[in-house]
TrEMBL record, chain A:
Pfam families, alphabetized: SBP_bac_1
Name of the protein: Sugar ABC transporter substrate-binding protein
Signal sequence residues: 1-26
Classification via CDD domains: PBP2_TMBP_like
Gene3D superfamilies: Periplasmic binding protein-like II
Record carries keyword Cell membrane: yes
Keywords on record: Cell membrane, Lipoprotein, Membrane, Palmitate, Signal
Length: 442, 311
């Protein structure tokens, strides 16, 4: 074989090499999700809490939507719950946001602060949704942003719930607790470390703050996160006393490994029976039913505080938001509306174990028969119930809980920090955040 | 002697000039893609980090963003977590590199000997190096899991208690992470040292044996001096990698419990990802860059890398 070396071939080789390097760079740019030749518009949809079960549910909803809207194709991207914020923030910074994203009151303040979301008020009104969707959920969605506009269409709600493995309680002859004292007694009676059974499952790791608030405000009866002067009530003496009692469970009625516990481990412990009582939001209902059977799962709302009222926290609203940069806002809104309409709302709420926002769906048989959902709805609808509104409108709300409080909480559980020190630090951080928020909006 | 003859034809002269230019530009054209990539992926991020380190930049609080001079660096000096993460980082690097070197050296010496099944032993020893960081974490998370891990089975045997995990205690989490990283890191040293052992001069060993030198004497006087440069290079590379280790620690412990395993790069990741404080995160990155650079230069200086011991 004769090899010919020429300047031409050398130049061509250099050009080819350069092209080979540059082509992948260009390819990294990705598509814009726009319409294609057959007139079908493709919209990008990101799920921020992707799990296999959620992905399956959402794909079912997408299939139904596409069948009814043949001019729209939905491209689904599932993001893990522990890293979606980073990906979304990067997408906002680089202008590569999708059309629609699953959102909640914990996210929207951050994304609105970056000017990333499109207000949906006009579309919501024009679609006639105010009469069909829970007004309290809509109000909650509006309450977490400074301009009180609607940046995501609420399709479901969550409430914190105390989960009980009823089968174990019955087997051990322990009565279902109805007061905080009975709860502590039950946790003690159900603890048998020698056979790997602990009365309560603690959340010491990621996402610990809702469990702390639930136990603390539920017991103390303190009704608001801030007092009238904008000082956080976290270190109110009643809260300190309540949390000290709650921390006493750790290592005694819980596994010591709960120090770093997060959602996945907690649900696994509950499913295996190594933990009997647990606080987690109502979204894990289907996981518990699958593991234990509906007959063995009971979901309770907080017991009345010593002062009388029931105080619930963690009343979260979730839905679908549209990015301001969406190139297909009309199509994106049609997809969002599908989550509000009875068919899509029922599938989504039932399969994800959440409270539906659609008033018609909320009266369907499946939800009437779901005891934990009914308990949550009853507690939230009871005028005597105090609902602790967490200040999700503070852009630093989640960051303080995650970066400051989570490590300190583990220090408290290990005995390296007192509950008072922990709550003083937490209260100071949130009071400062609230002060700068008030100054900004005033 | 070669002579060049200059043509009087201007066309020929022009072609000659073009040819020389083409020849002269070829190396630059060949280097261009690499230079472009270096500029895009190395220089730009470095300059960008430098720029942001002088800014208050938080994507969720854009109203406060702006130039703040050296405030981020001043805040860093008063940040307890910065200093504690620096201590954890130093401890992590020294322990990891030290233990990986010792175990890697011992294993390399063993598999350098001739014995039956040596090929299989080498394959088994090297295999953890082929496992990705996230997969390594998953394996060790399962091993440390209180429900399905080693502690659970020890408790079944009556050794220890149920519901415990090495990762769930400030006293043991660091060493549990060390063990997981050792599993992955030792093969690196074994491979490098074994490769260098292959080129050890056999005649020196024979001469030493004739002179009555025992195994230990031969190791100290021949093997170790021969491996000197490999060891310096391997410890330096591994030291830099361990300093920057984020994947295993982030996924295995998340820096916890109570910051017991929060190294400086992990702290940077948390500041940037969780707090969205990109300005402060950039300042921390600059600090890490400077510290790593100084330590590297000092290490190379102290070890006289590339020179013979008596040079």
């Amino acid at each position: 074989m004769k090899i010919v070396h020429s300047r031409k071939s050398r130049s061509a080789a250099i050009a080819a090499a350069t092209a080979l390097v540059l082509v992948p760079l260009a390819a990294c740019g990705g598509g814009d999700g726009s319409g294609d030749a057959d007139g079908v518009v493709e919209i990008q949809f990101w799920d921020t809490q992707a799990t296999p079960a959620r992905t399956e549910s959402l794909n079912e909803i997408i299939d139904l939507f596409e069948a009814q809207n043949p001019d729209i194709r939905v491209s689904y991207v599932g993001l893990p719950s522990d890293s979606y914020e980073q990906k979304v923030d990067t997408a906002i910074a680089t202008g590569s946001t999708p059309d629609v994203i699953t959102a909640s009151i914990t996210d929207s303040a951050n994304w609105v602060a970056q000017g990333a979301l499109a207000p949906l008020d006009d579309r919501f009104e024009e679609g006639g949704w105010p009469d069909l969707i829970s007004a309290s959920m809509v109000e909650t969605a509006r309450s977490v942003v400074p301009d009180h506009q609607l940046y995501f269409a609420p399709d479901t709600g969550l409430a914190n719930t105390m989960w009980l493995n009823l089968g174990i309680l019955e087997a051990e002859g322990v009565a279902v607790p109805t007061t905080w004292d009975e709860f502590y007694d039950a946790a003690e009676q159900l603890t048998h470390p020698e056979r790997n059974q602990f009365g309560y499952i603690f959340r010491g790791g990621a996402g610990m703050f809702p469990q702390v608030l639930d136990a603390m405000y539920g017991q103390s009866g303190v009704s608001s996160f801030f007092d009238d002067d904008g000082n956080s009530t976290l270190n109110d003496p009643r809260n300190v006393a309540a949390l000290e009692r709650y921390v006493g469970l750790f290592g005694n009625q819980t596994a010591s490994a709960d120090l770093t516990n997060e959602y996945t481990n907690m649900v696994a412990q509950f499913a295996s029976g190594s933990g009997v009582l647990m606080n987690h939001n109502i979204g894990s209902y289907q996981d518990h039913v699958e593991a234990l059977g509906a007959e063995n799962v009971l979901g309770l709302q907080p017991f009345p505080s010593a002062g009388g009222p029931v105080t619930v926290s963690g009343a979260t609203v979730l839905g679908q938001a549209m990015f301001a940069e969406s190139e297909h806002p009309d199509e994106a809104w049609r997809f969002i509306e599908f989550f509000l309409a009875p068919e899509g709302n029922a599938i989504w709420a039932e399969q994800s174990g959440k409270i539906p926002s659609n008033l018609e769906v909320a009266e369907q048989d499946w939800i009437v028969e779901a005891q934990p959902l009914q308990a949550a709805i009853a507690a939230l609808n009871d005028p005597a119930t105090q609902v602790l509104r967490e200040p999700f409108y503070l852009p630093e709300y989640n960051a303080i809980a995650k970066t400051q409080l989570e490590p300190m909480w583990q220090a408290v559980l290990q005995g390296d920090m007192t509950v008072q020190e922990f709550l003083d630090t937490a209260a100071a951080a949130y009071t400062e955040a609230e002060a700068s928020y008030r100054e900004r909006v005033s | 002697m070669a002579m060049s003859v200059k043509s009087s034809d201007p066309l020929v002269n022009r072609h000659g000039l073009l040819a020389r230019m083409r020849r002269g530009s070829t190396p630059y054209l060949l280097l261009a893609p690499t230079m472009v990539l270096l500029l895009v992926f190395l220089l730009y991020p470095l300059l960008s980090i430098g720029y942001f380190s002088l800014q208050q930049y938080n994507v969720s609080q854009p109203w406060d963003n702006g130039f703040i001079g050296l405030d981020n660096f001043r805040a860093m000096l008063a940040d307890d977590l910065f200093w504690s993460s620096l201590v954890v980082t130093a401890k992590w690097v020294v322990v990891q590199v030290g233990l990986q070197l010792v175990f890697g050296l011992v294993l390399a010496l063993i598999v350098n000997e001739a014995f039956r099944g040596r090929g299989l032993a080498r394959a088994v020893l090297f295999s953890p190096w082929a496992v990705s960081g996230v997969l390594t974490t998953t394996i060790w998370l399962l091993l440390y899991n209180p429900a399905v891990g080693v502690n659970r089975y020890l408790a079944d045997l009556g050794l220890g208690e149920y519901g415990t995990s090495l990762l769930a205690s400030g006293d043991t989490a660091f060493w549990a992470a060390v063990l997981a990283e050792l599993w992955r890191g030792v093969p690196f040293f074994t491979i490098l040292i074994l490769a260098d052992l292959q080129s050890a001069p056999g005649e020196l060993y024979e001469a030493a044996q004739v002179d009555g030198a025992g195994r230990i004497r031969r190791f100290w006087s021949i093997t170790l001096p021969h491996l000197r440069n490999s060891i310096i290079l391997a410890t330096l590379l591994r030291g830099v990698w361990e300093f920057n280790n984020v994947d295993l620690l982030y996924t295995l412990t998340g820096g916890g419990p109570a910051n017991a395993t929060t190294t400086l790069p992990l702290y940077v990741a948390r500041v940037a990802i969780d707090s969205k404080e990109f300005g402060y995160g950039s300042a921390l990155t600059i600090a890490a860059f400077v510290i790593l650079g100084l330590v590297t230069v000092l290490y190379l200086k102290l070890t006289n890398f590339g020179r013979e011991p008596n040079e």
